[in-house]
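User: Show me an example of a complex going from sequences to structure tokens.

Assistant: Sure. Here are the input components:
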Amino acid sequence: MENKEKFLEILYLMVKIRRVEERIDNLFAQGKIPGFLHVSIGQEAIAAGVCSCLDAEDSILTTHRGHGQALAKGMDLNRFMAEIYGRKDGCCKGKSGSMHIASKEDGVVGSNGIVGGGLPISLGTAFASMYRGEKNVTVCFFGDGASNQGTFHEALNLAALWNLPIVFCCENNGWAQFTSQKRYMKLENISKRAEAYGMPGVTVDGSDVLTVRGEAEKAVARARAGEGPTLLECKTRRWAGHYVGDPQKYRSPDDTREAKEHDPIARFAAFLMESKYIGPAHMDALETKVKSEIDEAVAFAEGSPVAAADELFTDVYA
Amino acid sequence: MREIRYIKAITEALSEEMARDEDVFIIGEDVGGPGGAFGATRGLLETFGDRRVKDTPISESAIVGLATGAAISGLRPVAEIMFADFLAVCMDQIVNQMAKTRYMFGGMYTMPVVIRTSCGGGLNAGPQHSQCLEAWFAHVPGLKVVMPSTPYDVKGLLKSAIRDDNPVLFFEHKALYAMKGEIPDGEYLVPIGKADVKRPGKDVSVVATSRMVHQALEAAKVLSGEGIDTEVIDLRTISPLDKETILQSVEKTSRLVIAHEAVKAFGIGAEIAAMVCEEMIDRLDAPVTRVGAPFVPTPFNLENLYLPNAGDVAAAVRNVMEF
């Protein structure tokens, strides 16, 4: 049972991510959170599986759908929630909101509102580690849609050429905003592109957290050993719309129903149950713990003041 | 003092800052072995090695993105984008990423990146290798924009840019690379954000940038024979704009001409004109006048017709004097 502690941590993270996303969805509907929100419900296994392989000093870059990875990398939920609210005590002082979550001390370099925008930046954090002779790894999360941006090509080519310590983690949920994968690319597996850059590529079932973790461990170890980057494609399902409030008129109800048949949390919980890592009462206790953490975070966020007017002008220049 | 070419002054600045600070590295296309398309980084690979002088594929977004990520991690990259025109290729990385990283993350990071690039015409390089695009970047909060016109300024300003904790777009004029000028033997810095009065005068102020500084000085010489005493201000930094030096000069002369090589329409001349009108329209004795390129791409064949020159500056000055 040597893995028990890690497994329970992963389960906790997955449940936490889902419940946070659900709460955010709900708070948005109540008009409490402004702006554009993108939730990752159904994709929790990738954030939890990959980030569970990383050390505190490692870095991640995430996307507009980046809440899950930020939390999985260890961000404080209170400061996260205050940021979603745009409040003073948020991790970015309220200036980032949902789309640009970052936390330097946790190695959450930043989330990005430009599809494919983080890929070139990940070269830099990885380069800095190599430049200084450190062993830190950068994981760059991006979506299937980003794999058709020019930045994907530039970043993967250079990373492979210089053996940069990066894991390119493609969360393939089958949707580039409102367009399904078969309508925007001929390939089924994006990992196939890795060969063109001279790096290993692998496609895994992104609903299976242990498979994700297994392949991520290999990719992280390879990067840490100075052997270069890996393209890790995790096939997943986007349960909700592109943005919170998306009526999804472009998507058939069957597709949404099918997506929800792939539940990474139910699947992992069942495995843990069968393997006797957890008992029947575990999930209820976990839900209670997570709910109380979220309640506390929401209270913290709502109790945090909005920024003073002069904050408008700070942080433009150092 | 000693005489040195503009291009060599750049090499000296890079070399001195790399020797001074281990966190400074150079990245760009052909910056290593070949020493850059114009030779600005020549010799640096031999001195500092391929760990700190990085040749890249032709991937401008990767160059700027890597610089941004490295700066997030505390390094001080100096990226070379061969021609200013190619900045358009990596605009997202500059404008949405590098320029906004500090602000949108609430001051979490500093962004000490310098992007060196060559701008301007005069080499018959045609529409995609000759543009002056500084106004694009001056319009973006978070960026600083520098445009030196002499060997002295280019060295001192580049050293300041490398030490600055903000992203700096550093526009070198390719027609000035061969120009010679005097610099001190020892180390010196030229501050960012400070214009320089290159020629004092009392009748009219000409605010010029980059190559047009020399055109303005040439015009001033001709005009002095006509009894017109022209003050030539070299802006040196586009953003942040040194309003004080401009306003002080206009306070004295009451007449203002702005000369830049970029297309006149929607350029920085418009910004300066508006600023002066907002601050002191009652002090002006003549309309503020701009000299700039016509609203056409830079032609290969008719470049001489296209580029604003000393004659254009002199004509503009005569117009405001006769108003």
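The lines above are the inputs; the final block is the predicted structure for all two components together. Chain B has a mean pLDDT of 98.
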